[in-house]
Amino acid sequence: MTDNKIIDGKLIAETIKKEIAAKVADMIDHGQDAPHLAAVLVGEDGASLTYVASKEKACHCVGMISSVYRLSEKASEEEVLNTINFLNNDPEIDGFIVQLPMPKHINETKVIQSINSNKDVDGFTLSNIGLMQLGEPCFLPATPYGIMELLKRSNVEIAGKHIVVVGRSNIVGTPVSVMLSRKGIDATVTMCHSKTENLGEFTRQADILIVAMGQPEHIKADMVKEGAVVIDVGIHRIKDDSEKGYHIVGDVDYKEVYKKVSKITPVPGGVGPMTIVSLLHNTLLAAKKNR
User: Fold this and answer.
1) What is the structure's pLDDT at 1?
2) Exposure string (b/e) for 19-31, b if CB count within 10 Å is 16 or more?
3) Which of 82, 151, 243, 245 lies deepest, with the highest CB count within 10 Å?
4) Is the domain of 176 the same as that of 257?
């Protein structure tokens, strides 16, 4: 039985994958190469390895080419920059990402800003960020774009609604706030963060609450308005005595908050799957733009 309260990111992502696969097949039928997405992975961070593996699997599912450029934890900044320069100039690579976080001896900002903005499918370069701020066509950051698609495909009305975003990172909170307030989307957006006093006073006003604060189960039921829509971006491994040794939770106390809301994303299975399909979407755009 379908639970109408749950915004099923996995199901929506599968639908989008089928749409992308059809477009990729059409390109191939017309004699073009399949879009090619690459990733630069420095070191052996567990979460990064999992994400890159998921990206490779998703690429293969839709008929795209995927490749990973792996560098050791001790790789110099110059080696990373040389790899990016190679990808910037390789006509066979349509788009690529640099997986974060990177080892501490590497300047992440310098590395990200060395990416050719026409291949920046993560939407992190200054050029793409600036275009996003102006509402011009660009590569939108994957997680914020995924959130927008979740809301749209779940028939959540956004125009005129008060949306509270908790978290101001450059990867999620800040860009999604900008995207939601643009003309044509027309939400009224309040951004909260770690220095916001009396956070609950703001979150209780939200018609739609988007939480990307990085604190497990911080948002409790008494911080949420009755009938609100809640999008939980957080993901945390909590150790326990189960066979796996851990369970996954988000930034929202799901069991309690679920009782009050009209719609909510689960963790896992909510925002996460949408981030990867958004990356595929951007790669398809890059292939059409760059060829």
Assistant:
1) 55
2) ebeeebeebeeee
3) 151
4) yes
CA trace torsion 229, 232, 233, 239 (10° rounding): -170
The residue from 55, 119, 225, 263 that is catalytic is 55
**Same-domain check for residues 149 and 232:** yes
Which domain does 257 fall in, by range? 142-272
What confidence tens digit (pLDDT) does each residue in 19-64 have? Answer: 999 999 999 999 999 999 999 999 988 888 888 999 999 999 999 9
pLDDT one-digit tens code per residue, 146-200: 999 999 999 999 999 999 999 999 999 999 999 999 999 999 999 999 999 999 9
Q: Which of 8, 99, 161, 225 is catalytic?
A: 99
Task: Please indicate, yes or no, whether the overall pTM of this predicted structure exceeds 0.85.
Answer: yes
Q: Phi and psi for 162 in degrees, rounded to 5?
A: -90, 115
Mean pLDDT of the region 104-123: 97
Residue 6 lies in a domain: no
Q: Minimum mean pLDDT among 1-5, 223-227, 235-239, 249-253: which range? A: 1-5
Q: Which amino acid is at 50?
A: T
Catalytic residue among 8, 94, 120, 122: 122
Same domain membership, residue 44 and residue 152? no
Judgement on whether residues 160 and 203 belong to the same structural domain of the protein: yes
Q: Is 205 a catalytic residue?
A: no
Give catalytic status of residue 133 as yes or no.
no
CB contact set of 271 (below 8 Å; sequence gap of 6+): 9, 143, 146, 147, 150, 231, 232, 233, 265
79 and 172 together in one domain: no
Q: Identify whether residues 147 and 268 lie together within a single domain.
A: yes
Active site annotation includes 99: yes
The domain tally of the chain equals 2
